[in-house]
Amino acid sequence: MIRKTFKMHLYPGMVEEYARRHHELWPEMKAMIHEYGGRNYTIAFDAETNTLFGYIEVESEDRWAQSADTPINRKWWDFMAPVMETNPDNSPVCEDLREVFHLD
């Protein structure tokens, strides 16, 4: 299993809406995450900076990267674009973080 960590940024005042949308995550989006090898997905929020910190375990970097091009993922990006910083294709502006410590 590969551990991935990353950060994204919310627009000011959008944390409750972001959380609501994720608590109501579409079943087909959940299924896609699992189908493409994603497990143990967590997102945390830093209120001082409007920064989201994500953690997910994936089976394969290549397989996980393919999930970006699925229709359900593109639909999710469009749905989430009003609450967070995005690229021109509505993908979240996302920066990978380097793991510096892990303990099981």
TrEMBL record:
Organism whose genome encodes this protein: Bifidobacterium simiarum
A single MF term (Gene Ontology): L-rhamnose mutarotase activity
Enzyme class (EC, first level): isomerase
EC number of this enzyme: 5.1.3.32
Keyword annotations of the record: Carbohydrate metabolism, Cytoplasm, Isomerase, Rhamnose metabolism
GO terms (BP aspect): rhamnose catabolic process
Pfam families: rhaM
Keyword Iron-sulfur included in the entry's annotation: no
Protein name: L-rhamnose mutarotase
InterPro entries: Dimeric_a/b-barrel (IPR011008), L-rhamnose_mutarotase (IPR013448), Rham/fucose_mutarotase (IPR008000)
NCBIfam families xrefs: YiiL_rotase
SUPFAM superfamilies: Dimeric alpha+beta barrel (SSF54909)
GO CC aspect terms: cytoplasm
